[in-house]
Prior knowledge:
This protein is α/β, with parallel strands linked by helices. 42% of the residues lie in helices and 18% in strands. It has helices spanning 11-19, 31-40, 56-66, 78-83, 86-94, 125-132, 143-155, 171-174, 186-199, and strands at residues 26-30, 46-49, 72-77, 99-105, 108-109, 115-116, 136-140, 160-165.
Amino acid sequence: xxNQDARRMxxxxxxxxxxxxxxxxxxxxxxxxxxxxxxxxxxxxxxACIGFMGGxxxxxxxxxxxxxxxxxxVIDGDGSLMMQLGSLGxxxxxxxxxxxxxxxxxxxxxxxxxxxxxSQAEVDFEQMAKGAGYPLTASFGxxxxxxxxxxxxxxxxxxxxxxxxxxxxxxxxSASPTPPGSTPPLAKMWPPIxxxxxxx
Length: 200
């Protein structure tokens, strides 16, 4: 399935499919998908990767290696991952069986004004992950197909990469600007995560 001919689901539909499977996983979210995810699945084990574009996957890798008995999901963006493609090789080499890498592929840098992603019509993160050594990969452009396949993907050993083709929605700029100082620094977001991990 290529980016050009894929059916595209809404970001809301994609996050709803994931939220129905949410239990006690640590979920690292980044960029536009993070806001939708936090609405669909509010939880103390949500970790927002803010101001660190491209770093969500390696942040999630660190958590997965530190917490091998706990499942860790990362909800990555296509623009973010393009900035740190080397993370695919790093993750595959570390081989954390508890890591699920979701890539929301809408073809644009939505948080900065929906500029087209370089080579957005051809770039395929599933093929990149497969080439890097991920043992399991998949792509979906339809929420029902994603829903039907997800349980089997979650049951398999990772690292697993799932590419979700979604529609660009200009969500970031359709909302009111975030007031200065309203986003908590990353350092202040760590204590709830640490407390939740300790409590199991």
